[in-house]
Design goal:
The complex is a heterodimer of chains A (about 280) and B (about 300). Chain A has about 280 residues and is an alpha/beta fold. Chain A has helices spanning about 1-20, 70-75, 105-110, 125-135, 140-155, 160, 175-185, 205-215, 230-235, 255-260, 265-270; strands spanning about 30-40, 40-55, 55-60, 85-95, 95, 110-115, 190-195, 220-225, 240-245, 245-255. By secondary structure, chain B is mostly helical. The chains are: A alpha/beta (about 280), B mainly alpha (about 300). The interface of A and B includes residues 81, 112, 113, 120 and 135 of A.
Chain lengths: ~280, ~300
Amino acid sequence: MVMTTLLSKHNKKVKEDLQQMTESNGKTKISVRDLNLFYGEKQALYSLSLDIQEKEVTALIGPSGCGKSTFLRTLNRMNDLIDGVNITGDITIDNENIYQSTDVIKLRTKVGMVFQKANLFPMSIYDNVAYGPRGQGIKSKKELDKIVEESLRGAAIWDEVKDRLKTSALGLSGGQQQRICIARAIAMKPEIILMDEPTSALDPISTLKVEELIADMKKDYTIVIVTHNMQQAARVSDKTAFFLNGEVVEFDTTDKIFSVPKDQRTEDYITGRFG
Amino acid sequence: MARPPVEKANKRKYMLEKLSGRVFLFCALLSVISLLLIIGFVFFKGINPFVAEGYSFINFLFGDDWVPSEDQFGIFPMIVASIYATIGALIIGVPIGLFTAIFLAEIAPKKVAKIISPAVQLLAGIPSVLYGVFGLAVIVPFLQNNLGLAKGQSLIAVILVLAIMMLPTVVTVSETAIRAVPKSYREGSLALGVSHIGTIFRVVVPAAKSGILTAVVLGMGRAIGETMAVILVAGNSLIVPTSLTDSVRPLTTNIALEMGYAAGVHQEMLFATGIVLFSFILILNFVLAKISAKGGN
């Protein structure tokens, strides 16, 4: 009962936020052209091409193992960490080819990431959020205090943790930890935030909070989110890309994907016939 | 051929079961019994002069002179030598060992790690007398020639040999600790635009802290208890060392050098030296238990 009212309230809020934002400025932030990715001999992504618009939420959906997380990780070059990964094609962010530039640190400062499982460091809440800025050489306590507060407010968790900033972040609930992870990403003042199934380990209420947060963050950030949950994709995203076996089957506005999909496979997937 | 009745066959199985249980228990108890016997024996012999013969334990610990023929038994110089040698070896051995571990676990390509790792482990298997011989043949002459010492056998020689000897322990234990740090910590840090080295020192090493401290304590135990290699390079003078180039005699060396011919009170005093050494090791083990308990949380 409580759940349903919460849900409907939540849906309404998300919808309103979406309506406010429908006048997207239409500027391309990330452009992917003919992207192929190989794990050793095995090809995981097949000639992907898509454009991701600035200050929109783009959802990547598809069954497990379809390459959506792999694709997400090409956008901040996290796949570099895996031995034997080979990439062809181009990804440009703000017209800069991220695989031609060797400055991965700069790229990852600009493109933040939130992982499937909250991966806070074993340190205090404050130190977690200040971790990135400190890495950039910010030492002044006043400045760090400001960044930490702004970031925690930005992740809508300031009120819950402001009295315990110096306590271990690992003592928080899963949902709170995930929002601290978002705050930690925001603290770097990124332009793009990648989210890899950020709510898959969370309970429904925490999930709602994160979704509301995503809808709210859209005005400042370009967001790319991988999700298993199609309702979630429908609720939070402007555009949706449907992945299958390493290919993008269909990429369009979320409304179209969920109401009038062009491809039979998309329709089968979103109506739950497989996946 | 008739098979034995089932009941009888089972009875034999139960007997065997019981018997093997006993055998295993006996083996397990053997090590505990050995430990108690050794401690008991050392303490019984070592406490005697202070309990039965009126020697002062304070004078024993803090006395500067060890002259058995004149009935003087002060081990203060040896305690100081042992502590200095151990601390010195830690100062050199721990950073090198830790950096090696970091290199192996985080930086080295698999092929390189596959060569270095076994080499480090092999270092642990070299008999300690060979370390001593190496020290005597290489380090001591080197110091003698380059520092202009009359005698190369010195505190610094002991420190260098012990630092090498503790490397396998420090490297192996801290490498294991570093490898146990969840991958998600590294990813989280790298995704925030922090460099590889920055990630290692700001997230990975702190997260492996308790394992690394364990490595340090184990290395310390190795250094303070080492005897054979130390005898060969220490010089064995009975003075409180004031410089790295002084010839020294750590606790272990004292026991090994004199036990062969000592008798009476002299021999008991060597056992008492053993008690002091044993106390150091006991304290280290206590610290170790504390660290691992804390790491468990």
